[in-house]
Hints:
The chain is of the alpha+beta class. It has one helix at 37-51; strands at 29-32, 55-59, 65-69.
Amino acid sequence: MTIEIEKNIPIPPDRHNVYQFGTMTVGDSSFWNVDGRERLASAASNYGRRTKKKFTVRAVKGGGYRVWRTK
């Protein structure tokens, strides 16, 4: 079996950066029009655990969820 080595293939963007939690300061919030809360809340919780920051996720009127940075 031979593996082909390729050059100049760009690295795709980090998929963990999609939520942009790192750019939020305390009091900031972002709206997410997603079907389920679990994935969004889990991402916020995991990021917060790694960085010692706190987030909360709440359902909002009209559908979707909002994430607030609280600490």
